[in-house]
């Protein structure tokens, strides 16, 4: 997903950009953790995109399996917040990754609408108390 352009941002879009940036940092950290455990993720994969997706998914599944097994033996594991399914259900455009950019290089209407829905969601039911201060919103 892309942030909204910096010019003329309203509070809702500024919050979206902040939350997107924060999510990207978390994903980068998570991928770094996976890459430390699974060497295939440390280098360029010379695979077709569909096969690369399968490899990454397999690494995620194995990582979760190992964490779950370790938590049963006394190690700590993170708990689910329960919000993941709500987000997944609300934003299920079909194959958005494959159709996110039109042949002209511009985002499709569908991806623009998804970004707007996230912006609305982050200022309503998924708003958090600290986001306005961190996103420099009044």
TrEMBL record:
<feature type="domain" description="DDE Tnp4">
    <location>
        <begin position="8"/>
        <end position="64"/>
    </location>
</feature>
<feature type="compositionally biased region" description="Polar residues">
    <location>
        <begin position="73"/>
        <end position="83"/>
    </location>
</feature>
<feature type="region of interest" description="Disordered">
    <location>
        <begin position="70"/>
        <end position="109"/>
    </location>
</feature>
<dbReference type="Pfam" id="PF13359">
    <property type="entry name" value="DDE_Tnp_4"/>
</dbReference>
<dbReference type="GO" id="GO:0046872">
    <property type="term" value="F:metal ion binding"/>
</dbReference>
<protein>
    <recommendedName>
        <fullName>DDE Tnp4 domain-containing protein</fullName>
    </recommendedName>
</protein>
<feature type="compositionally biased region" description="Polar residues">
    <location>
        <begin position="92"/>
        <end position="109"/>
    </location>
</feature>
<keyword id="KW-0479">Metal-binding</keyword>
<dbReference type="InterPro" id="IPR027806">
    <property type="entry name" value="HARBI1_dom"/>
</dbReference>
């Amino acid at each position: 997903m892309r942030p909204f352009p910096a010019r003329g941002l309203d509070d809702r879009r500024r919050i979206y950009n902040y939350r997107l940036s924060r999510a990207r940092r978390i994903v980068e950290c998570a991928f770094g953790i996976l890459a430390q455990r699974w060497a295939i993720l440390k280098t360029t994969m010379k695979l077709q995109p569909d096969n690369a997706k399968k490899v990454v998914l397999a690494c995620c599944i194995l990582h979760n399996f190992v964490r779950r097994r370790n938590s049963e033996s006394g190690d700590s594991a993170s708990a689910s917040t329960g919000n993941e399914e709500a987000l997944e259900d609300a934003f299920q455009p079909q194959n958005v990754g494959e159709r996110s950019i039109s042949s002209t290089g511009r985002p499709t209407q569908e991806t623009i609408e998804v970004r707007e829905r996230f912006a609305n969601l982050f200022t309503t039911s998924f708003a958090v108390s600290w986001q306005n201060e961190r996103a420099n919103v009044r």
